[in-house]
Amino acid sequence: MGHSNHKDDFDEFLNEFKDVIPLKNTQVVQTTTNKNALAKQLKRQAIELEQQQTNNYLTTGDVKPIDPYDYLSFKQNGIQDGVFKNLRLGKYKIDTVLNLQQLKFEQARTTVFNQVQQAHAKGRRTLLIKHGLGLHSKPFPAMLKSYLNQWLIQMPEIIAFHTAQIKHGGNLAVYALLKKNQEQKLHNRETYGQK
Which residues form the Smr domain (predicted)? Predict the structure, then answer.
């Protein structure tokens, strides 16, 4: 009689544990967690990239087409003529070269946006941006050059730009002058005793 009670107890015991997952599956659960962590990390990176692109205010809409052989030239108010002349003549040391040739439109837009901001943060002053002629670009010739002309005007970090000298690419490239960052302004004030 005690024997049948033992069986009932055992059945009851098994019944209590019917929802328990056998131990051998724990490895599977573990890897799923790792996959989830990786998925979350990738999603986070994608969101960060998307935010960078969302913060990218450079225009993708209407643009005034420029002839492939046109000179690009712009200076903000207050830029001294001598400074602009030196930029135009390629007399400043080139700190950074951006090559946009062979890049797709969105890649070029992101590169310009990110690289100009990084260069400014690092205190770089003169960029050489290679845009190419774009004789056969679609939907119109010099598409990238036309957009770059507009983008550089939109960026507060850029205080002047001009088509490069022949030795730096001529009509295929543009010099861009960046304004001083806060550290450089501070250094100048200390050096020259300005308040």
Answer: 98-179
